[in-house]
Specification:
N-(1-d-carboxylethyl)-l-norvaline Dehydrogenase, domain 2, 2 domains, 13 helices, globular
């Protein structure tokens, strides 16, 4: 069976994903993007009609709009997989919740894990978590067969989506620690603390705590929190050095909707430290030194 793929979002991750999928000779890839010059055609309805699988590689603020836009054109059996790792600002909904609400659980999958675009586009290997039904996981396994992206499965769709948001927020903290020059030992303490917090938060929001230990959780946190390719890490560094300017990342965009969803009381200490630092960057060293001391 051939796979006709439509990737919505022709940014870095969308292009990198296309490079990987083309390693499977039975895959054909087309693009749809808000920039017409990056799209494979002018008519979204026609592109969807030709596709048996759609990947969403878009910023989190666009997830609800795009899902609503494609819904009328989806044919029976078309699977929509999101690589978006964010939380919708207006209603504090995770990507999985938006997609299930609009499309239903049987038509969607969430893909999350270590997927730095700069590495996957040149064919370096990685393994990621698919949050989906068992049948949809089998479809994705066939699409990624023979490529450099390997898959593990989780039925915990909510937990996989939440993990993707948390790793972006916590990656800011890795950048802050690095920018402050607090050292690798402090990063190790912070890493341990954040994984424990991810377990607690995922459970609190209705997922399974062990999802934090999957590639969508700890695996992606390690990659995003310690890579020169990570925007969240770079923004954290600049915050610590007082030079953030107008830089924005998914972690910055997601933290307040996440806290709104959790409730402002009894926030875990590492999450609270990142939030306090964003509000008062000049206190970053004191905030993170206390965090490490009390971990």
């Amino acid at each position: 069976m051939s796979h006709k793929i439509l990737i919505i979002g022709a940014g870095e991750i969308g292009k990198a994903l296309a490079n990987v999928l083309k390693q499977n000779k039975r895959v054909e890839v087309e693009f749809w993007d808000k920039n017409p010059r990056l799209s494979s055609g002018k008519n979204l309805e026609e592109l969807i009609a030709k596709s048996n699988h759609i990947f969403l590689c878009i910023p989190s603020p666009a997830i609800e709009r795009v899902v609503n836009e494609i819904k009328p054109y989806l044919l029976k059996g078309v699977l929509v997989t999101s690589l978006t790792k964010g939380i919708e600002k207006k209603g504090s909904l995770f990507s999985s919740e938006v997609m299930i609400k609009r499309l239903g659980k049987r038509r969607i999958a969430i893909l999350a894990g270590p997927m730095l675009a700069e590495e996957i586009k040149i064919g370096l290997p990685t393994k990621v978590t698919v949050g989906s039904t068992g049948k949809n996981f089998q479809k994705l396994e066939d699409i990624f067969k023979g490529t450099s992206i390997y898959l593990e499965h989780s039925f915990d769709i909510k937990g996989v989506a939440v993990a993707g948001v948390l790793k972006n927020v916590y990656a800011l903290g890795f950048g802050i620690i690095d920018g402050l020059g607090l050292g690798s030992n402090a990063k190790g303490v912070y890493m341990n603390l954040t994984i424990l917090e991810m377990e607690v938060i995922i459970k609190r929001l209705g997922g399974k705590p062990n999802t934090a230990l999957m590639f969508a959780g700890a695996g992606d946190l390690e990659a995003t929190g310690n890579s020169v390719y990570s925007t969240n890490f770079a923004v954290g560094q600049k915050i610590a050095r007082g030079s953030r300017g107008k830089l924005v990342s998914e972690g910055i965009v997601s933290i307040e909707p996440l806290i709104k969803r959790l409730g402002a009381k009894d926030l875990p200490p590492a999450l609270l430290a990142v939030r306090k630092t964003l509000k008062n960057p000049k206190m970053a060293k004191d905030i993170f030194t206390v965090l490490i001391k009390n971990a």
